[in-house]
Fold this protein.
Amino acid sequence: MRLQRDSVFMSQLDLGFDNFLNTGQLSRMPSRVLSKILCHLCSDGPLALRHLLFASKGLYYAAVNDASLWTTISFDTEFFEHFRGRPVEQAKSFTEQCLRWSSSLPLCIRIMLTGRFDGDLLPGPLGALSTPENRGSERCTSLIWDHSGRDRRTSKMIMALLPKVLRSLRHLCLTDFKDPIDGTQFPNCPVLEKVEMLDHCEPYPSLWGTNLAHVTTLSFGNYAGWAPYDTDTLSLFPALRDLTLFTTHSRQARTLPNPKPAPPFQRLQTLRLRGDLPQDLLTGLVAPALKALHIEADDFGWTSTDTLRDSFSPLCLRLYALLPRIVYHLEPQWATDLSMLVQKCTRIESFFVSKWMEEECIKFLGRSKVVLHVV
C-alpha cells in the first residue's frame, strides 16, 4: 500500500508540481516521500529547486536541510540559460551555496557542453571548488563531462579552471572528449578507480600521466565506427579487472584500417562485449586471468557472437549470453556461433542463457560437463 501511495505522488509530480502543490496535500505528505520528490526534481542538479524555495516554508526547510539534494553541481544548458545576462558573480554564489548546503557529503560535478555554452560563466563557479572554506575539490568523487561538439581549446580552457588535484575522485565519465595536444596535464586523481569513455578522440598519454594506471573498471566504446587509435586508449589501462567494450549503433566494420594490437590485460577477470565489435580488436585481446565473459546485445539487438567464434579464444570459467529474442531474427545462426564459442572456452564451467535460448543450447551442449543456467 505504501508503494502505491508513493507511485501516486510521483505520478502527480510528473503531471505538474505546481498543480500538486495546489491540492493541499503537501502538509500531509510523509517526509520520506517529499524527499523522493525533491531528489527526482534535482537528479541533474539543484538548480531545479530554485522556485520551490519560495513556494512554502515547508519546502524551503525540506530542501535546505537535506544535504544530499545539493551534492550534484551541473554546468549544463539549464545553468548557462539561467545565468545568461546576469552578473557573473551570481553563478559563483550559486555554486558556493551548493557547496555549503551539501555539508561534507561527496560531490558529483557535471560539465555538459551539449547545448548553450558560455565560457565566461565558468571561472567563478569552478574556482569556488578549490577555495579552502568550501573544500569542494576534496569532496569530488565523480566527474561527468560531455564534450560533444566542442574543440580541444575548450578542453584546455576548462582543465585550466579545474582544481589541480582531485584527491577523492573515483569515477570519471567522458563523452566525445578531445585530449589537448599541448601537454596540458589532467588534474591529478590518485584514487581514480572507474572510467567511462564514449567516442573518445585520439589520446595523448602525457595528458593523463599516471591517472589511469591503477583504474580497475573501464567502460569504453563508440556510437558506431571504431578507429585504430582506440587500442592506444585501452593501453593506458594496464591494471583492469573489469572491462566493457561496446558499440551503441548499427553493425561495425569487421576490420580496421592499419589496426594496432590490443594490449594484454593480465589481471582482467570480467569482460563484457556489447553490440557488434570489430574483429581486429577481439583477435588480439589477451586476458589469461579471465573468469567471466558476457555477450550483450546493443539497443538494436546486434551482438559480436559470430565474430567471437572465429577471432577470440577466451579462457573463462563462466559465459553469459543473456540475449533478447530479437537476436533470433537478426542473427539466425546464433546457436551455431555460440556452440563454436563454447567449444573454444576450454575452461568453461557455467553457461548462462535467456529462457528462449534454452532448447537450442541443450541440443549443442549434449553430454558436455558445462552446467547450463537459464535466467
